[in-house]
């Protein structure tokens, strides 16, 4: 084993694909504060089931914080400066979120990442996210940083073509994954969630994705 492998292991960094790395448990010690912040955000901009441009109501519930937030309806997918549900600006990104995203990105080889948007997905048992690409963010060089909280999920990721073979990755409370470089536009999704309970979130999984959208 060479020294670089050893240093990566010590930092808890597992390479997944070029530009993609898993930081197992990286956010675990901040789990309570992260879940509390999500509750505060949802009190101002509630979780809602977005409708896709194709007219399908998503099983996953979503809200956002940051200067931009995520919205979809029959008119398309887009980032907005205001929450269409409340008419108000999205809640601000908590300093804890910014620091966590920046630190994780730097460890994965993307220094200087400053997110301006955080999508928050809430999964209940049985809900899923079908295979898709994220391509509505203006800064294509910036990575996406994902933080898993609550009950486990099986994450799916493939290649740049929808038909490419898919790999499965079990994500548990506190896991952080960074997707940048050649992995920024891979197809990915989440398998239907199994029933489980977590002391901080109950029967639910919360995923934060930090982006440079504007
Ligand atoms: C790889 N969320 O919000 S996070 C999404 O668990 C989304 O809620 C999933 O896909 C979730 O768009 C997956 C991991 C993730 C997020 C974005 C990516 C992986 C990604 C963008 C490009 C490549
Ligand atoms: Fe995605």
Automatic annotation (TrEMBL):
It comes from Methyloversatilis universalis (strain ATCC BAA-1314 / DSM 25237 / JCM 13912 / CCUG 52030 / FAM5). One of its GO terms (biological process) is oxidative RNA demethylation. One of its GO terms (cellular component) is cytoplasm. This is Alkylated DNA repair protein AlkB. Gene3D superfamilies: Alpha-ketoglutarate-dependent dioxygenase AlkB-like. Its cofactor is Fe(2+). GO terms for molecular function: broad specificity oxidative DNA demethylase activity; ferrous iron binding; oxidative RNA demethylase activity. Residues 114-214 form the Fe2OG dioxygenase domain.
